[in-house]
Amino acid sequence: MSRLNNLDSELAQELGDFPEDDLDVVFTPKECRTLQPAMPEDGVELDSHVRDCVQTYIREWLIVNRKNQGNSDTCSLKNKGSRKNFHKTLQKQTFESETLDSSNTNFQVGPQHVHTLPEEASRTTLAASDFDLRSLQPDPRLENLLRHVSAEEFERQNEEARRTNRHAELLALYPSMDEEDAVEIRPVPDRPREHLGNRILVKLQTLKFDIEIEPLFACIALYDIKERKKISENFHCDLNPDSLRGFLRSHTPSIDLSTQARSAVFSVTYPSSDIYLVIKIEKVLQQGEIGDCAEPYMVLKESEAGKTKEKIEKLKSQAESFCQRLGKYRMPFAWIPISLTNYFNLSTLERDIPEAESLNGKGSTSDKRATLLQARRLSERSLSAEDSYPASNFKTISLTLSTFFKQEGDRLSDEDLFKFLADFKRSSSLQRRIKTLPGTLKLEISPAPESLGYCLTPELLPVKPFPENRSRPHKEILEFPIREVYVPHTIYRNLLYVYPQRLNFANRPASARNITIKIQFMCGEDPSCAMPVIFGKSSGPEFVQEIYTAVTYHNKSPDFYEEVKIKLPAKLTEKHHLLFTFYHISCQPKQGASVETLLGYSWLPILLNDRLQTGHYCLPVALDKLPFHYSIHSPEKVPSQTPPVKWVEGHKGVFNVEVQAVSSVHTQDNHLEKFFTLCHSLESQVTFPIRLMDQKITEATLEHELKLSIICLNSSRLEPLVLFLHLVLDKLFQLAIQPMVIAGQTANFSQFAFESVVAIVNSLHNSKDLSKDQHGRNCLLASYVYYVFRLPDPQREVVKPGAGSSAILTESRYYTFGRTSAMSVGSKLLQSRVISCSNPDITVTQNAADEEVRNMMSSKPTDHSSSRMSFYVEGTNDMPSICASPRPSNKKHFHEELALQMVVSTGMVRESVFKYAWFFFELLIKSMAQYVHNIEKQDNPRRSRFSDRFKDDITTIVSVVTSEIAALLVKPQKESEQAEKINISLAFFLYDLLSLMDRGFVFNLIKHYCNQLSNKLNSLFTLISMRLEFLRILCSHEHYLNLNLFFMTSTSAPASPSPSLSSQNSSSCSSFQDQKIIGMFDLSAEYRQQHFLTGLLFTELAAALDADSEGISKVQRKAVSAILSLLSSHDLDPRCSKKEVKIKIAALYLPLVGIILDALPQLHDFTISDARGGKGRTGNPEEEQESAGAINQNVALAIAGNQFNLRSSGISPVSLPYRQSATLGPDTTRNLLICFLWIMKNADQNLIQKWIADLPSMQLNRILDLLFICVSCFEYKGKQSSDKVSTQALQKSRDVKARLEEALLRGEGARGEMMKRCRIPAGNDRSVGQNENLRWRKEQTHWRQANERQDKTKAELDQEALISGNLATEANLIILDMQENIIQKYMLIFVLLQVEELLCNLNSILSDTVKMREFQEDPEMLMDLMYRIAKGYQTSPDLRLTWLQNMAEKHTKRKCYTEAAMCLVHAAALVAEYLSMLEDRNYLPVGSVSFQNISSNVLEESAVSDDVLSPDEDGICSGRYFSESGLVGLLEQAAELFSTGGLYETVNEVYKIVIPILEAHRDFRKLTLTHCKLQKAFDSIINKGQKRMFGTYFRVGFYGSKFGDLDEQEFVYKEPAITKLPEISHRLEGFYGQCFGEDAVEVIKDSAPVDKRKLDPSKAYIQITFVEPYFDEYEMKDRVTYFEKNFNLCRFMYTTPFTMDGRPRGELSEQYKRNTILTTMHAFPYIKTRINVIQKEEFILTPIEVAIEDMRKKTQELTAATNQEPPDAKMLQMVLQGSVGATVNQGPLEVAQVFLAEIPADPKLYRHHNKLRLCFKEFIMRCGEAVEKNKRLITADQREYQTELRKNYAKLKENLRPMIERKIPELYKPVVKVHSTRESFRNHSFRKYDAQTSSQST
Q: Which of 820, 1378, 1492, 1541 is the 20 to 30 Å CA partner of 707?
């Protein structure tokens, strides 16, 4: 027996401990829009079907809840973001970043003194620095620096400061998770409700014409001209004044209030631009055509006097007499259409209608996860279009119309109307073709409010709210949607609409011209049987007995447009029929003649074979009188009578009529009608045979026909099936368990009913017209299960005695489908069921059955002996069915029958059952809950609630479903998506079972699931993903903590799977102190047994983090999200708010800390950026901007010399193998870190301290590294102000000073690192509270939402900044608490730091960071400083690597991709050096020497000797990059940057190092990608070639004392391609102008040597000169390609023209040129964009040498233009024009005349003279070639230009000829005396030979 201590018992009880009343079955009244629900008329005995329908519509919802469900659900987390006042409870945190941004302006506008740092300055000692610290601005004094403060007091103050204003709920500050992962959110379905479309309120205010002489009546309806359909019923409105309405007083005995409505609410489900509101106007019938009656309205006006007034009075008098005589007859008069295009939001129509369609049943929602948001949106909204479509969100619009169309007497049909409307939409010419009437119609159109007071439904029922003080009600007008609306019926509605359309009396012998039809609904043939069920029109009774159609004057074949709306009686009989009586109306009064003359009769029986008749009919018309007993026959089939009946046109159909029903009682579907009829024949006493449509069913065939109808249910049309879905499913479930004996035989419908349900479920899911939620659940079915389904009513067994037998009750029994077929599903689990009594076809004696029961019971625990089994049969099959007193039957339980049917199903049925398992699972759960509730077993042990047979069935179902999931997962994508949904359904099923069944049994199911899935799946990715989603749902259970025995220690709790706590008598517990503390942080087997679900979840998380397969990052995100979801639910659960409870909960999650520490190398490092961190930026440009200017926090490590490696990555110093687990993304890492902080915040601090005390140093390093990442991860950025970057460097210096203060004071180390900067100790002279809320320096705390939108309001941004500030504060305080715990152990170690090295490093950091602050706007200087820092860490590889990466990031930000790549290459070379020290592997580079082909500069990364620094030291080279994978990662990033920078040849060199490593690791996937990238690089070389632009170079010299050490320094700057001299000049002048003042900076325009004596000492001078790469002739042999001529450059040349008298330019004969060659310290490209000049050479060219150089250039240009492929005529002509053109040919000619006219007197110039002569010789030859080439390229219109060119060329050649041919004889003398002619070749100089051959060729 185990025991709980008192505290644990109280905690368990407080957290629910599975309370006895946890289950809550609630009967919720249905929401009723009307004051009273719609019901059939009173006093009528309803048949069974109508009664069932009404009962379904008014029955309460039955909802099963669990009282604590939701307390710990993720829904709480989802809702916490919407807590409106949450942010008001938060205290605003003041951060230094925000105070500095607003108040501190450290940028000095005036002159500043700028210092430089010589590149090679040593950093070993403080004195070695070459800059003057005294010249720096002093920092604020640290007043308490030298005051002694006791450590205890300081400790106490810090402790107190940390503990104040702490936020209890850390995760309440954390942003909501992505709902895509929140699979545990099972949306509550929307309640079934009446369908309402977009509601439009139309108010008629005025209807009058220019003359008011008679009453007019308006009839309004909506028409869709595209669908050619009337889409609403009619609304009748009377706007007549009382004086005119009085004309009809004799015809309106009463006027009900409901008929006086003048405003109507129209509903439109599918809005479009084709919908028109049509207002038809009628008047009282009078003599004459419509045109005659309308003429006065067109010509007379009431305002006119005289004769007009008399005419109006006369017309009014005539109208009054017509009204008195013909007042009950109407005639068409006018109409007016109004387009509703502007009243729907048609701009969003195209986008939103699919949603509306989905909600109403139309449209489709994809099953893919990509549609998660849409599916969620659909599931959260009503099935009604009222909430789904962005309805008529227009403002109220008042219309005044002044033109009416006169109605045409021969165009009254709807078809004619649609033609009119189509023409009207196309053009306005309709008004010219149709006569119009002047008048006024005022109406108001507006969106109908949700609760419209004083409104009536289409059945005239008052809608809530319904005040009594209103005069005119609003009327809701019933919609006739253009397409199906798939919303089940929820109210009683039974309306019939009759539309007489056309009558053809053309051939009737008697006079029939002014024809009207009297329409009546009759319940018998006697005239008194007319029922008052026809809805009246305006200003009359609500219901009338008869309606007359409007009369078309003198038309024998009139069209009708009447709509007759009838309220159908609930009980219809064969006597009910529609009676049509045709009359001729005499318009002109005749003496003694009646107004009406009978023309004939026709009728239509309402029922045909007991089914409502609807549709189009063409009926014959009987003359004179109605046949005898006519109502029982249709007019077409009246039997012959005596005397014979006279018919119009010999019994042909002459009357067209349409009848339509809108009924929630009549299904209007054959299959549904048959099913309901047969079901009710079983439930009520009927006489056989029964008639069903056109067949008769006897008692013998009843069972067969019912089974057939059940099977055929799914063949019914989808719309009626959906409309009656609730009733159909109720009936099927009733049949599944209803005991039936028909004709003395037991009838079994269970299997058929179940298969029919499966087929219906399959149809509804497969329909693209029906919506689903994010879990793929059909919304209609989900709604049914949640609200409607209830256990079928227990009914007495239905017995249908056989023929001739007496109606004696037989023995009570039921039978189910045989279990033998279950062998094919789960034979092992069902072996005990081979013998079955449940199959009526197998005869088994009672003894056999009892034996089976005894055998099964003997294998079970004895406490199950009282269980009753649903398959047990009382009595034997041999007993006769005659029994004096029937024995009570065993009750057949629905959940048992459903589970059994699921188990034994086969084939397609089985496939569908498991495909849509969610529905059957939820049915099972709800039926089980009702069963438990009904039998009041909550108090009983859970083990005995359900039978063992049922448990076996559940086990089988879970096993089969798991197998199905595994089978689907190996199939294509669509199938695997289905598997995911089934997996989620199964998880929810077990989640629900935990609240109903024994938890040990459910845990076993979970265990079997996990094992079964593991055995059948090979893909680790899929396996972990499936089990994660499964476990996440289970862990969202409201009693999750109790299920995991969170209050138990690891030694006392029983192993899981185990029975639930409530089924244990007692437990034992021992204290934490008896444990080995460090073991509590490990995921041990003991832990997994004790804390079952959490252990499973942690196991999956660890597996996901260890895996390294493609796409594993998604699974890792899922795993971490699941843990975070759990912690969030605990944090927000009011039951877990007590501190001691959270301590217990945190203890449950301690193994997560171990998992996180093991995964440390995989975490995204927030301290470094994308360029080197691998994964992870959010892509937010603001975030990149913020971090770009900040120096990495690793600088701080230098302060302590990293002696104890307190900031290392935590990876073992032994190099990791190349194949590592994938790096986590930033969001996943952030979620994991917040989980870690939550545990550290809530765990027992004593426990944490003891744990830390036992940790080895490597583990402690990991914790510190983790804390460091946490600081960067949750760094505060506030409102993302743009000027933070410029101040971050300055804050670094203050940060480092705080560390120095701590060291000097022997402070307690890291625990005060943050708090000391913001909290002023007691006794300080400064004012109290001045900085009370200032907690954090901005560079220490950062957290930012990844998905931040840019369109938030200022209030939202402020609120977000407030919450994120509190999150950053709380996170960092937790980190401080952890540091405090660590420091208490390691406090003495911190005091032993070497002060001398500390001071040296501190001095360098201070000076560098201050200068970096000053040089933010000078990128070159900034990079020099960073380069200097990196150089200083030559012996600290980790830090040098970090700074190289910092530089790479900075370069990338400036788009200097080549330099960024070089930084990474240097970093890779550094890694290679230290890897080669660790291990000798032939596939690895031997060190930096292997990188020489990439850059000659890389040799500077050669490591120092092993005796000075060894990588085997603890903490040295322990970063993530000092591994093979790190090396490959750096090189791959470098290759990408080289490619971006256009250096494709270098990409090849980089991959030459990478490929051997990949080959050694057989990483063929990466090899594939690598070779693809190489192919792209080579393709780019081929395609782009010389089109690439690499860089432009400038020499920059600084002169003047203002530059300090920069004075007289020269650099070569590399600038982007095509940078012009003015651009760089403007940039440098602008920056230094800001530093020294604009007047103090001057740019030297020329490139001549600077004489400093002539410069103004008060000014700063900058000399900028364009330089070009310079190569010796021997170099040009190797530098063949364009790339080679622009890579690895260290020599540059610029030219300075001058004359001897000091002028830069002069005559040709005195023009000298100075060529200056500069040599830089390193070759370009380098890790910087400017490099010091270390050597300068100058060469002076004489005037003739200048001329030789110029002519060579001109010749080269000509050659290039001539040989260009493809030829460029324009370029060639431009070069030619500059060479031989008439305007410029003096140039070459003048050069020749100056230098070649005479042979020079000085022999030293002979060789130059000859060179120039040869240059001209080649030049004139190239000119000739160019002229000839141009001839071939010119067009016809350029021939004259070509002639001119040739002429100029000939002239130039002629002028140059004498000078070219003149040779200097001395140059052609033999070198030696010639002895023999044969040896003359050998004995001549080569130069002479060349000259001879040249002269011969000329």
A: 820
